[in-house]
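Much of our argument rests on the idea that a fold can be written as discrete symbols. Part of our work consisted of pairing the sequence of a single chain with a tokenised description of its backbone. We regard such an encoding as a compact summary of how the chain folds. The amino acid sequence and the backbone structure tokens for this protein are reproduced below.
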Amino acid sequence: MNVGKSGYRVFSANSTTAATELAKKITERLGVELGKSVVYQEADRETRVDVKESVRGQDIFIIQTIPRDVNTAIMELLIMAYALKTSCAKNIIGVIPYFPYSKQCKMRKRGSIVCKLLASMLAKAGLTHIITMDLHQKEIQGFFGFPVDNLRASPFLIQYIQEEIPDYRNAIIVAKSPSAAKRAQSYAERLRLGLAVMHGEAQCCESDMADGRQSPPLVRSSSGHPGLDLPLMMAKEKPPISVVGDVGGRIAIIIDDMIDDVENFVAAAEILKERGAYKIYIMATHGLLSADAPRLIEESAIDEVVVTNTVPHEVQKLQCPKIKTVDVSMILAEAIRRTHNGESMAYLFRNITVDD
């Protein structure tokens, strides 16, 4: 395709080579060249972006994968979007496969909803549309005042299960906490497999964490309003870890949207082994794999961790052969093509319900 006549250009806002691999795969599928730009850090760690070609009146897609240095990646995206805005680009669409700060989408005590702040910053910088994948909570779409297409990686992960896991018919889908049960149930129903749910003190469920409604602490005070006697809530105490469902003699496939700190997954794998599962797989969209995750996975009872390439993790793969990658550049490229051509995105969501 002649990029000069296509009416759109694709840029990468990453300053690191490893983080631009997904952008290169997407442009190869689209048959266009990656836009000419320079993104780098100056000596004082300030981010500088130079766009090397005209973008006036065109649709511009910025592909931004998020490496370990999250805050630098965000600034690169914001500065590039603003540079394109001031260069008179017609539309600026952010392709952000893993949306950062998505775990901070709820009020925690006296904290803040950082995800909402980031949404406002992106709009102010000039973005008019976002294409992302498997948001941590689908309600995050409501933080934006412009369209957000939340693509799904589940078709690719389900295909991997069917093609790469021998005897997957003898598998059982596992949710490592009750909060992950809905996602796991979707996989189980599509694969015609059983479902097991783990619950207990080794798990950390977001819904159990304190939020703003419990702040300040509920403490009786003699200085309060006369006659005001609010009931005190009993402290939560999780029961010993248990598995609801029979995993004995089965392949256990744990489903989640992201895998970052792996201690909970390692603990879950040990419990499943004790209950009789003979192989443990973990399937997740975003492989953040922070800190000592590769070492812990390698030393654990986990047989394989399967993630997509929404987040660069080549270094982690070199440290741990158990980590496998599924390429999702195909659906991202098709989303870009359909967005530019004004075509319906419904094809990319076929057979996907609101609850998936």
Notes: The longest strand covers residues 251-259. Residues 1-5 have pLDDT under 50 and may be disordered. The chain has ten helices and 14 strands. Residues 70-86 form the longest helix (17 residues).
